[in-house]
Amino acid sequence: MEGEVFYPSTEVVSQAVLKDWEKTAAYALGDLSGFWAKEAGELEWFQPCEQVLDDSNKPFFKWFVGGKVNITHNAVDRHLKTYRKNKLALIWESEDGKCDRSFSYYALNREVCRMANIIKAMGIVRGDRVTIYMGRVPEIVFAMLACAKIGAIHSVVFGGFSVDALQGRIADSQSKLIITCDGSLQNGKLVELKRIVDDSLRHCPTVENVVVVKRSGHEVPMEAMRDHWYHDLCALPIANGKCATEVMDAEDPLFILYTSGSTGTPKAIMHTHGGYMVGTYSTLKYVFDITDEDRFWCTADPGWITGHSYIVYGPLLNGATVFIFEGGPSYPYPNRWWQLIERYGISIFYTAPTAIRGLMRFGDAWPNKHDLSSLRLLGSVGEPINPEAWKWFYHVIGRGKCPIMDTWWQTETGAFMITPTPVVPLKPGSGTRPFFGQVAEIVDEAGNPVEVGAEGFLVLTRPWPAMMRTLYGDDERYVKSYWSKYPGKYMTGDSARCDKDGYYWIIGRVDDVIKVSGHRLGTAEVESALITHPAVAESAAIGLPHEVKGQAIFCYVQLNPGFDPHEDLSEELRQHVSQHLGPIARPEEIRFIDKLPKTRSGKIMRRVLKARAQGLPEGDLSTLEE
Ligand code: PRX
Question: Which of 134, 181, 299, 338 could bridge to 215 as Cys pair (CB 3.0-4.6 Å)?
Answer without folding.
Answer: 181
